[in-house]
Design a protein that fits this description.
- The chain is of the alpha+beta class.
- 24% of the residues lie in helices and 26% in strands.
- A hairpin with a 4-residue loop joins strand 17 and strand 18 (499-502).
- The protein is elongated.
Length: 580
């Protein structure tokens, strides 16, 4: 029996996994109809909310009822304290049940540190969660764990990032999710969409959410249903906050309203009724995204301590000169909404820190997530720029190549070994132009606000051109001090597509199916200074972005050392920006 082929209600056993968590706590201005009256009347002597017709266990039905009552603002119902006690009395602590206990305690305002610590002990090396410690990871268990971590304020932690990466890697090409080896599941896909939405301001998940939602929309039947009633409900809850055109999901709400019984319940089932009430409430109260506008959000941290920075001024400047701004809160978070789509620059500034500027591409109806680490402003050292220039075809050194720092008097030529070095360049942003007769010129934009050694490594000159249709990015991220590969580094690509992934055990990563054009690549890991690069991604190429990250505790090293080249041609990419 799997959730991928759910039986009818009459034959459905009380599975442990039939459940969903609400990711939003919203106050209701007008009291819900008799559905709430029916729901709270199902309280039992043991404190649970349940009925004999439930398709879920008493634990699941009670937990879902509590989530719905909190979402609807019905927090004074007399049965709530006993229901919470019923949840906390449960001794079985599979991932779903433990996650629901965490949510129950958050609803009560209780500390959940110990429960979260126990949950994290269930996480496997692949980033996913199994039902119990040592069990193989499943999409469904990982969804429940990620929901609990989000509500516990853990969205930016490495553990949560690994869980999200696991979900991303298990989304099918058609956008759906399922249990391993089973067909696409409406239920799991809807839960995955809800879960990813809780992390969309932390990671670049717009594409994953959109593909999941498009799959769900494609499964809606002519009568407005999508599977059974509980599946219709969880689908409506997933779609309403993210789909601008309400007409696309209105049939789901109409179908639910039509299926409500005279006593206010759905199928006399506590679990299904709780889901339906929450779904209709979400559909009626949520503010859908503006289809013609976009948003920018993220977290700003101290580059040395990795602590969030409060009071950072974030200014987005559009191509027409229009500017919108926001200030980070105590968690370092910012959100700028209702931005016209297109190319823009985002500047992050605060006293005693170097400001940072990023070029971003904003897409209508989507939220771009962009995190930044700012470096404190000590007395900067001069930049010491070095590298080696070689012929791409022969791998032989290229002597006599001209290396010029634009808008300055600094220049030199490569020696017989292809090596070059320019000293005493003022710290900050510089643009390096490399030219040699018979070769394509290379242009690199480098940001080194603290100065220091900037080794560009091997720069390959290529007389050829690049053609093709598909683009991708890959590379290896290492520790700058030890050279060891780094696992779990968040690689984010923003541009026409906003995509992300995490490095594997050997420090490698790959992101495919990227639209060509200007992209911004960032590599970030807790405890290390962030590295970013901007490049013009050419159709038909694989961009090789290797970076050596510097620990916050070792500021003497340069934040980024490495090379950015086209992996297909080994051509050093023009217009690559390397910054920290």
């Amino acid at each position: 029996m799997t959730l991928d082929n759910l039986p009818s209600k009459k034959s459905f056993p009380p599975l442990l996994w039939i459940f969903t968590c609400c990711l939003l706590f919203v106050s209701l201005t007008v009291r819900a109809d008799i559905g709430v009256d029916w729901l709270v009347s199902q309280t039992q002597g043991n404190g649970s909310y349940s009925s004999q017709d439930d398709i879920a266990t008493s634990f699941q039905a009670t937990s879902e009822t509590l989530t719905t009552l909190y979402a609807l603002g019905e927090t004074t119902q007399p049965g709530i304290p006993s229901a919470h006690q019923f949840i906390n009395n449960e001794t079985y602590q599979g991932t779903e049940y433990l996650s629901r206990q965490i949510i129950s305690n958050i609803q009560q305002g209780n500390a959940v540190t110990d429960l979260v610590s126990t949950l994290l002990g269930y996480q496997n090396l692949d980033g996913g969660f199994g039902e119990l410690p040592g069990y193989n990871s499943t999409t469904l268990d990982t969804i429940f764990a990620a929901q609990a971590l989000a509500l516990a304020g853990q969205t930016s932690t490495q553990a949560a990032g690994f869980a999200i990466a696991f979900l991303q890697s298990h989304q099918h090409q058609t956008g759906d999710f399922s249990l391993a080896g089973n067909d696409a599941s409406i239920y799991i896909t809807a839960l995955a969409s809800q879960t990813l939405q809780a992390y969309q301001y932390t990671y670049a998940l717009t594409d994953n959410i959109t593909r999941a939602n498009n799959y769900l929309l494609s499964q809606i039947n002519a009568d407005g249903s999508i599977g059974e009633l509980f599946e219709t409900a969880v689908t409506l809850t997933a779609l309403a906050p993210t789909i601008a055109d309400q007409a696309l999901y209105q049939p789901l709400a109409d179908h639910l309203q039509a299926a409500k019984l005279a006593n206010g319940s759905w199928e006399n089932d506590v679990y299904t009724t709780a889901l339906a009430l929450k779904a209709i409430h979400t559909q009626q109260t949520v503010t859908p995204p503006q289809p013609d506008l976009s948003s920018l959000s993220g977290v700003v941290k101290d580059g040395a301590s990795n602590q969030p920075l409060n009071g950072v001024n974030v200014v987005v400047t559009l191509s027409d000169g229009q500017a919108l701004s926001a200030t980070t809160n105590s968690e370092g978070r910012y959100l700028i909404s209702n931005i016209p789509p297109g190319s823009a620059s985002a500047q992050f500034s605060i006293n005693t820190y170097f400001s940072a500027t990023a070029n971003v591409t904003l897409i209508a109806g989507q939220v771009l997530s962009y995190d930044v680490s700012l470096l404190s402003d000590p007395a900067a050292n001069p930049i010491q720029l070095s590298g080696q220039i070689v012929d791409i075809d022969t791998a032989m050194p290229v002597s006599g190549a001209s290396i010029q720092i634009l808008t300055s008097s600094f220049s030199t030529q490569s020696d017989i070994n292809g090596d070059f070095e320019i000293l005493d360049i003022s710290a900050g942003s510089i643009t390096v132009k490399i030219t040699k007769g018979g070769y394509l010129s290379q242009l690199l934009s480098i940001s080194a606000p603290a100065g220091g050694i900037v080794d560009l490594g091997v720069i390959n000159l290529n007389p050829g051109t690049v053609t093709g249709t598909e683009s991708s990015i890959s590379g290896v991220i290492t520790d700058a001090a030890t050279g060891d590969p780094l696992r779990g580094v968040l690689i984010s690509v923003t541009g026409s597509d906003n995509l992300s992934t995490f490095t594997t055990q050997d420090g490698q990563y790959t992101i495919t199916n990227i639209q060509p054009g200007t992209i911004v690549v960032s590599a970030s890991l807790d405890g290390y200074q962030i590295a970013t690069g901007t490049a013009e991604l050419v159709a038909g190429t694989n961009l090789l972005f290797n970076a050596a990250l510097v620990k916050n505790s070792n500021p003497a090293l340069v934040p980024l050392q490495g090379q950015v080249i086209d992996a297909g041609t080994q051509l050093a990419l023009a217009g690559v920006s390397i910054s920290a």
